[in-house]
From TrEMBL:
It comes from the Bacteria. SUPFAM superfamilies: C-terminal effector domain of the bipartite response regulators, CheY-like. This is DNA-binding response regulator. It comes from Virgisporangium aliadipatigenens. The keyword Phosphoprotein applies.
């Protein structure tokens, strides 16, 4: 589903995605409320969500969609690359963040990545977000949330490495365990933390105080 308040933009994104053999646009919407209604009617795998729209904005709609369950996954599309929007979108439950000036190939790739269960943030936005954490200008929360009792020391260790951006293979090398074992730990982490991908897990790692700016 493509959600954007500008008809030309909606039609353009829909045309790009419908041109791919493995992708199909099942619906479009002009605002957040239409998106919620459309998801109920069409059950899309991925929603491309604009942020600034009249009525219900994209951040509110994203939060409402993701709090309801595992589907759909939300890929936020915006002309605004401000760190505040990135962080708020991720907190709302988005699985990805892509600027509207991305190439069509980047858009298609982003949809496939998010549909496959991974998180994605456009590289320029990723760099800015990391820099903001490092210099302290973008702090997750003043006080960290308590670490869930069910989280074992090893799971907390794996979560820290996920938040550092390491792949499963790299985590396995770091801890001296098999890649398959790492995947098992990560799946368990996702279930215990109530997250769906590595991007959301990283946000939770900051919230829990397992990762700190400048660390």
């Amino acid at each position: 589903m493509v959600v954007d308040d500008q008809p030309v933009v909606r039609a353009g994104f829909a045309a790009i995605l419908d041109a791919e053999e493995d992708l199909s646009v099942v619906a479009t919407a002009a605002d957040g409320q239409e998106a919620l209604d459309g998801v109920g009617a069409h059950d899309p795998d991925v929603v491309l969500m604009d942020i600034r729209m009249p009525g219900m904005d994209g951040l509110t709609a994203t939060a409402k969609l993701t709090e309801a369950g595992q589907r759909p996954r939300v890929l936020v599309l915006t002309t605004f690359d401000l760190d505040e929007y990135v962080y708020r979108a991720l907190r709302a439950g988005a699985s990805g963040f892509l600027l509207k000036d991305a190439d069509p190939a980047e858009l298609v790739h982003a949809v496939r990545v998010v549909a496959a269960g991974e998180g994605l943030i456009a590289p320029p936005v990723t760099r800015r977000l990391i820099e903001a954490f490092v210099d302290g200008s973008l702090a997750p929360r003043t006080e960290p949330s308590p670490v869930p009792d069910a989280l074992t020391p090893r799971e907390a260790q794996v979560l820290r490495l996920v938040a550092r951006g390491l792949t499963n293979s790299e985590i396995g090398t770091e801890l001296g365990i098999a890649t398959g074992t790492v995947k098992t730990y990560i799946n368990g982490l996702f279930a215990k933390l109530g997250v769906r991908d590595r991007v959301q897990a990283t946000i939770r790692a900051y919230d829990l105080g397992l990762v700190r700016p400048r660390s």
